[in-house]
Amino acid sequence: VAEITELHSDEIDWDAVHITLQPDRTRNRRLHIIPLTDRMKGIIGSKKTGYIFPAKSEQGCTTTSGVRIALNRYCTELKIDHISPHDFRDTFISHMARIGVVLEIRNRVTNHADSSVDGVNYNAYDYYKEKLNALRKWDRELAKIIKASKRKASD
């Protein structure tokens, strides 16, 4: 979660349309390039400078604990079971599997380390195109979920 909540405009390449997280910003200490879909660009905001999700925290950005506190507050207000920030990752991965994104690409999108001999020693391919296609597929699915939710709420 911190990889996104602490996202800074310096990590976004608007010309190449992706986020680059340096190894010191990832849990597995590996470079992670995240292609941006149109929806992601809309959420981030065009050419924004500074932290993408600023907050009045010591770091100057939204923190994982801040997300956790907000989620707890919303869950209490909505009288629903409490969820954690990590639940978003679990849900994302589960939905990606459901819509047919294969495990290897899900792992690349989420920056899970490939501990196979091939992954550790030989394969330097970045999977950019496959990650972008997977994220676009998720984007289309998310649009369907949002549309169905709005339709259900208006019934």
Task: Give the arrangement of secondary structure elements.
Layout: H1 2-5, E1 12-13, E2 18-21, E3 32-35, H2 38-44, H3 64-78, H4 85-98, H5 103-109, H6 117-122, H7 128-154
Antiparallel strand pairs: 1-2, 2-3
Provide structural commentary:
- Helix content is 52%, strand content 6%.
- By secondary structure, it is mainly alpha-helical.
- The protein has a 3-stranded antiparallel sheet with strand order 1-2-3.
- The termini are far apart.
Question: Radius of gyration, rounded?
Answer: 17 Å
Helical region count?
7
Strand order of the largest sheet: 1-2-3
State the separation between the terminal residues, measured CA to CA: 34 Å
Mean pLDDT comes to 90
Total strand segments: 3
Q: State the shape.
A: globular
Query: What fraction of residues sit in β-strands?
Result: 5-15%
Query: Which regions contain 5 or more consecutive residues with pLDDT less than 50?
Result: none
Biggest sheet record: 3 strands, antiparallel
